[in-house]
Amino acid sequence: MLRRIKYLFSRRKRVVTRFPPSPTGFLHIGRARTALFNYLYARQNRGSFIFRIEDTDKVRSKDEYEKDVFESLSWLGLSHDNHEVWHQSQRTSVYKKYLENLIGEGKAYISKEENPGEGERAEVIRFKNPNTKIKFTDLIRGDVEFDTTELGDFVIARDINDPVYHFTVVIDDFLSGVTHVVRGEDGISNTPRQILIGKAIGAPEPIYAHLPLILAADKSKLSGRHGAVSVREFREKGYLPQALVNYLALLGWNPGTDQEIFTIDELVRTFDLSKVQKGGAVFDEKKLRWINKEHLKKMPKADFEKELKRRIESSERVKDLGWKISDEMMEKIASVIIDRIETYADIDNMITTRDLDFYFSEPQYDCLSLKWKEEPDLSSAENHLDFIRALLEKLPEKKWNEENIRAVVWPYAENQGRGAVLWPFRYALSGRDKSPNPFTLASILGRETTLKRIERALELCLSDSADANKP
Ligand code: GLU
């Protein structure tokens, strides 16, 4: 029995999936999802995943877009297995041979036709439709039946050197041994023609799976007018590739469990093409942000620090101000910042909105802001800051950490009123209405800077010389 299973298994055709983009635009996330599902299916079946470039549309195909496809897929980590990537534009002679054979066998013919606009006669090559009913089983949609009569004798080439897309797809899928055609729902109406051509050239019929459309919240097809749609735009918006891959996998598929966060390896293990839904999948950027945050939390700290450093140091603002930020500081703020962001772009926003300035330079503020909202004037801030300074002065450098700072100040704050004590403390350190709590801040800034900032607040705003600021 086991031997028989082994035998059958060895006879089974090795799975080959493919991704054949037309380089006519930046890689859309819908196409990236198609690539991902092909990738996952090939990997989980120990098969191969191949690329080819369908650049027969000479007007719309651009090198720039081809480059983008490769860059985007490599950023997502979806590597292909074929060393040589075919370009259909360079394979005219291959298609020509097949066209000639079909014509020779009477399965296709040259037809002279009126060219509507110009009144000239042009030659096209038409496929001689056997007018049969064809049936195929789509892994997602089940049995699909189609009466091909309605297609008539369809065009397969504009001339012998200019085959149309339906033709080139079939020839290339056949010659590269593709066993599974996993593509977008828009490909379903092309399938009957392609099956007919495949039969005519004697190609084994691949297994089809047509993926549901990706829809915007308004249930229309997701397009540029809804916002970001290309992989490169999401990359620029600061998403992690592993998060985008994770989210794309969930567009039309779910594991049937509560698990929502997947690494690519987990996806290879869990993904099930036959469980992909038929109905359109609604794209939800809020969900993507959440998934991104989960991947941020999981990523190695050192990688996050590296990216944080890169973003901070390359920002115009930091360059203009000439701030030099130590690795030690970078490391300390990384753990605070990671809790406050969902995407890398949030770091850039924090830089421009000056939400990080206080880590690197003395804060500038309006003295009245030191006043806790429930206090009538600044005198309570003065008393509390004075007291906190005295408490913290007793905490030596080597014991200076968040836990100890909290332990020293907390009982006093509990006693005197948390807002009244902690607001001016925090404000003196950050000069911002919103910032991390004062214990975290004081530990990041260090003993010397913390004491200096409290001192400065007292001098600038609260000492007798600053009476003008007192109401
Ligand atoms: N070149 C086609 C496209 O980019 C793919 C067609 C197919 O997957 O069969 O839409």
Structure description:
The protein is α/β, with parallel strands linked by helices and 471 residues long. It folds into 4 domains: 2-215, HUPs (Rossmann fold, 3-Layer(aba) Sandwich); 224-297, Glutamyl-trna Synthetase, Domain 2 (Glutamyl-tRNA Synthetase, domain 2, Orthogonal Bundle); 300-356; 367-469, Arc Repressor Mutant, subunit A. Helices cover 48% and strands 13% of the residues. The protein has 20 helices and 13 strands. The chain has helices at 2-11, 29-44, 63-76, 92-104, 165-175, 191-201, 231-236, 241-249, 264-270, 285-298, 301-314, 316-321, 327-340, 344-352, 357-360, 379-393, 402-416, 418-430, 438-445, 447-462; strands at residues 16-19, 48-53, 86-87, 108-115, 120-127, 133-138, 142-147, 155-159, 162-163, 180-184, 207-211, 214-215, 281-282. α18 (418-430) runs parallel beside α19. It is elongated, with a radius of gyration of 32 Å. 33% of the residues are buried. Glutamic acid is lined by residues 20-22, 54, 169, 183, 187.
Q: Could you list some keywords that capture this structure?
A:
471 residues, alpha/beta, Rossmann fold, Glutamyl-tRNA Synthetase, domain 2, 4-stranded antiparallel sheet, 3-stranded parallel sheet, 20 helices, 48% helix, elongated, disordered C terminus, binds glutamic acid
